[in-house]
Amino acid sequence: xxxxxxxxxxxxxxxxxxxxxxxxxxxxxxxxxxxxxxxxxxxxxxxxxxxxxxxxxxxxxxxxxxxxxxxxxxxxxxxxxxxxxxxxxxxxxxxxxxxxxxxxxxxxxxxxxxxxxxxxxxxxxxxxxxxxxxx
Length: 135
Fold this sequence. Notes:
Blueprint: H1 3-12, E1 52-53, H2 54-64, H3 75-81, H4 88-97, H5 107-124, E2 127-128
C-alpha cells in the first residue's frame, strides 16, 4: 500500500472497510477492541456517509500516545502518530506519490508541502478537516 493510502486508511477507515481514491486498503484492526466494531468516540465513519472528523480522530490518537506529537503542523509527527515510517526516504517517497516538483533536498519546504497535501487528500477522501488546517 502507498504511504498516502496508509495515512488515509488509518484516519478515515480505522476499522477497515471503505476504499478511497488514495489507494487505501482496509486498516489493521489490531488496536481495536477485537470485535472489529468501531469504538463509540464519535469519530468513526457514520453509516450514513457523514464525513470523518479528522481532528477528533487524530486528537484521540495523540491523547493515547506517550510522545508529544504536533500532528497539526508536522508531517513527521503526523506519520509518527499513525505509526508510519517518517524517515526522510519515506517522506521523499510520499512526495513522489503526491507529485511534488520541488527540491526534495530542501526537506523543510517539502515537509510543509507534504502536510498540506495530506490534509487536502484527507478532505477529498471524506474527512472533515478544520479550517485552520486548510491552506
